[in-house]
Design a protein that fits this description.
The protein is α/β, with parallel strands linked by helices and 116 residues long. The protein is 34% helix and 23% strand. The chain has 4 helices and 5 strands; from the N terminus they run E-H-E-H-E-H-E-E-H. The protein is globular and about 35 Å long. The two termini are 24 Å apart.
Length: 116
């Protein structure tokens, strides 16, 4: 994984890394064979660098972590699921431009502000 700010999360550490995080967490459910997932990665890298103290971004490989993928009813990828305090605030599926992801985040996390 190219960006040190984005962690790989697994079935075994999802609870600790996501549900117990003190920050909101954007989870990217992805797979290495998924072209839209690979196209989304640089956008998530930019967001992780832009908001390191306000938002944690993690990745879950759906092929390797089937339990957490099933638990969150992930049926298409890339899927972004936003968590705060262990609760899902929102979800979206498919390749999105940075502006749309910012709007999605701002809808749920008003401190981010669109256009940042």
């Amino acid at each position: 994984m190219a960006n040190a700010l984005i962690k790989e999360v697994t079935d075994s550490n999802f609870e600790q890394e996501v549900n117990q995080s003190s920050m909101p967490v954007l989870v990217d459910f992805w797979a290495p064979w998924c072209r839209p997932c690979l196209q989304l990665a640089p956008v998530l890298d930019e967001l992780a660098a832009a908001f390191p103290d306000k938002l944690l971004i993690v990745k879950v490989n759906v092929d390797e972590n089937r339990s957490i993928t099933a638990k969150h009813d992930i049926r298409g990828i890339p899927a972004l699921v936003l968590f705060r305090d262990g609760k899902v605030l929102g979800r979206t599926t498919g390749l999105m431009h940075k502006t749309k992801i910012m709007e999605f985040l701002d809808e749920h996390l008003h401190f981010i502000g669109v256009g940042g």
